[in-house]
Amino acid sequence: MHMADALVSPAVGGVMMAVSVGAIALSVKKMADEKTLDEKKAPMMGVMGAFVFAAQMVNIAIPGTGSSGHIGGGILLAATLGKWPALIVIASVLLIQCLFFADGGLLAYGCNVFNMGIVACLIAYPLIFRTITRHSMTRTRIILASIAATVVALQLGPLGVVLETTASGITKLPIGTFALLMQPIHLAIGVIEGIITAAVLVFIKEVRPEVLESAAGGTKMSKGVSVKKFVAIFAVFAVLVGGGLSLLASSHPDGLEWAIEGVTGSTELEADSSAHETAAAAVDKTALMPDYDPTGDGKLSGTMLAGIVGSAFTVVLAGGFGLVIYLARRRKIKAAEPDEALVNTGA
Predict the structure, then answer these.
(1) 200 partner at 20 to 30 Å CA-CA among 70, 169, 245, 292?
(2) Could you give the CA distance from residue 30 to residue 117 in angstroms, rounded to a whole number?
(3) Can you give the three-state secondary structure of the chain, one letter per residue?
(4) Contact 107, 13 (CB under 8 A)
């Protein structure tokens, strides 16, 4: 569901960029202010971001449609990290995909963060997932909450794509026809993602239930709880999925491309404004592995390399965000503590 720049006008792209940057800034502030932030959060943000990056490379065919879909990961991230860290992580994933892999446009970055991150982490997770699991984090409730929240997110997000495209004046995609294609296909994708999300969260509940409880309750995990095993497991998962399972990804167009093709006969649109050209030129300079193909010859080894490198980039960026916020908060707390010598002398 990554929007390309051709779907977005400069005005709409600018507004959505401002909204998304504001939400990211709010997330940073909330993380820095909350008492739940500790040294365990940064490595968890890194490996979960890497896992979601890798999982997004695996497009799953939707039977009988000629389309495919991949997980967005917003609900999964929010359920394991909390809604504010989750938004920072999904924004990091989308930025790496845009700049280094030319997946999703720079002009459309704000739209993609809103549709795939804000909608899932700040709307569907607290209103749907947390409502269902509020009183108990049982396996049944986790499954129901995962599917329900993901389906809602995968209806609101695509609706955002339709509205942003319409507001951008893309007349080739009339709102009625576009919506009639976008919403049903993403309903199917949402059910599949919900099942995958539920399976991963049930696994986490068995391995380290404190992770889910901490994210849900907004509390720190006790000092005696180690996340080293959790981090190691998901680091391995990221490598296996990005460097192996991604080779089995469906070649069918994803839900957005499928809907565009259903209206226009092509999976892509073109835009030639100066803003679009500038954004495209910027991505051309930074894209080390366009379309996840570093060699440009379509070899499977290239896809494997892209999956592993992209996951590593995500660990650095998302984990780095978490570490910087944690260190800044710790420094702030130390600065606010009264000087021990002055306290002892009664000064």
Answers:
(1) 292
(2) 16
(3) CCCCHHHCCHHHHHHHHHHHHHHHHHHHHHHHHCCCCCCCHHHHHHHHHHHHHHHHCCCEEECCCCEEECCCCHHHHHHHHCHHHHHHHHHHHHHHHHHHHCCCCCCCHHHHHHHHHHHHHHHHHHHHHHHHHCCCCCHHHHHHHHHHHHHHHHHHHHHHHHHHHHHCCCCCCCHHHHHHHHHHHHHHHHHHHHHHHHHHHHHHHHHCHHHHHHHHHCCCCCCCCCCHHHHHHHHHHHHHHHHCHHHHCCCCCEHHHHHHHHHHCCCCCCCCCHHHHHHHHHHHHHCCCHHHCCCCCCCHHHHHHHHHHHHHHHHHHHHHHHHHHHHHHHHHHHHHCCCHHHHHHCC
(4) yes
pLDDT in tens, 106-160: 999 999 999 999 999 999 999 999 999 998 899 999 999 999 999 999 999 999 9
CATH number listed for the domain at residues 5-345:
1.10.1760.20
252 is written with which tokens?
A: 């069918």
pLDDT tens digit string along 241-297? 988 888 888 889 999 999 999 999 988 888 878 998 999 899 999 988 888 877 666
347 pLDDT tier (thresholds 50, 70, 90): very low
State pTM to two decimals.
0.92
Could you tell me which residues come within 8 angstroms of residue 278 by beta carbon, excluding any fewer than 6 positions away? none
CB distance 3 to 161 below 8 Å:
yes
Residue position matching structure tokens 């446009």: 105
Euclidean distance between CA atoms 73 and 219, whole angstroms: 22
Contact status, residue 90 vs residue 56, Cβ threshold 8 Å: no
**Averaged pLDDT of the chain:** 90
Q: Which pair of tokens denotes residue 104?
A: 């999703």
